[in-house]
Amino acid sequence: MGPSARPGPRAPGRRRHPDAARGARRLARRTGDRHAGGGRLERRAGRPHRRHRRLRTRGGVVSAEPDGGAGEVRLPPSLEGVERVQSVRTPIRLEYDYRPSAAAESYLRAYEDRRIIGHRSPVDGAVFIPPRGVDPRHGTATTDEVELPDTGHVGNFCVTHLPIPGRKDLELPYVSAWIHLDGAAVGFLGLVRGCATDEVRIGMRVRAVWKPDDELGATAENILHWEPTGEPDVPVEWAGNRAFLRGQAGLEDGADDEVPDA
Question: Structurally, how many domains does the chain consist of?
Fold first, then answer.
């Protein structure tokens, strides 16, 4: 083996302490002066960062500004002069199978016979619809089925002026309302028709309008909509969930009583 080689002494020169470079960068960030401290920032002045370079088309050649280079892609003649794609719209559709619980299955099966059922809470007798098999307030199981009438009142409502995709049968505007069946502690969403939109009001009595018998199935869509009954309204102060509290108190319409918190 030959003699080992040792590097000679380094040529004298000025070395910048690393802390000085970091200080210059911090100063540039605080003051907004990207050339503060000189060095690399100053040498790159006027050159766009490679991440910020935009693509442009020149004579069928796609290149990166400002000087093109190795990233060039030549377009076929058939695409020359064609406007570039700015965005793509992709319709998405999701289909899935729903397996209802035992309580929900009984609820849907009852619709085949024009019946509406709920579950009674063993704690205070509140009837929930649709039934979920549990009282959500107390966490207790519910198994006592209760058949409810297809009449109730409007707890609250909304007049809608926007169409629903796929529902060309709905004339605008239409009314979506929270329907509270007689004897139920909670309400559910329904469509109110059979009157002008400005006639719908909180407390208005309504009844279900069903599909013909030969079109009935195990679905809540058997009820086409809800229409006014012409009966006297439920007082506004007792409409909605408070109707159940009134029934618990054993009060009759017109009684002089205080309205509890819902």
Answer: 1
